[in-house]
Write a structure and sequence with these properties.
The protein is mostly helical. It contains seven helices and no strands. It is globular and about 40 Å long.
């Protein structure tokens, strides 16, 4: 058996760094299509479409993970919870960003970009099949 340590700048089974993938997710959250996102990021449209589909397929579960971390970390959770977004996808992106900000606020020594914080919280599995596991 071989073990590989994944830096927080990466996601499991993804060649691009998490900041590029996070930028794609943020663009989708504000309404951009996968082709426009791919053009802007200089990535193949099929790759970007795969990221967006994987994230969308687990949006509710991912939002739950990041919202629970946000509530646990924030001094005033009601003051930092993001306002409802027009789509579940956008809600989930907002939860990830708010959680990253809460981590950096609670722990000032954490200076990593928000999407690297998200990678650390998900243990590099943000877009991995089966993460997060369904709640029972």
């Amino acid at each position: 058996m071989t073990h590989v340590l994944l830096p927080v700048s990466g996601l499991s089974r993804r060649a691009d760094v998490v900041e590029v993938i996070g930028a794609a997710l943020e663009m989708k959250a504000i309404g951009a299509g996968h082709r426009a996102i791919a053009d802007r990021l200089g990535r193949p449209a099929t790759t970007v479409r795969g990221w967006l589909r994987r994230f969308a397929s687990r949006a509710a579960l991912v939002a739950g993970v990041f919202t629970s971390h946000l509530v646990a970390l924030a001094e005033d959770p009601a003051g930092v919870l993001p306002a409802p977004a027009p789509t579940a996808f956008a809600d989930t992106v907002a939860a990830v960003i708010a959680c990253g900000r809460a981590v950096r606020s609670r722990f000032p020594m954490v200076t990593a970009p928000i999407w690297r914080v998200a990678s650390a919280i998900s243990r590099g599995l943000l877009l991995a099949p089966g993460w997060p596991p369904p709640t029972r």
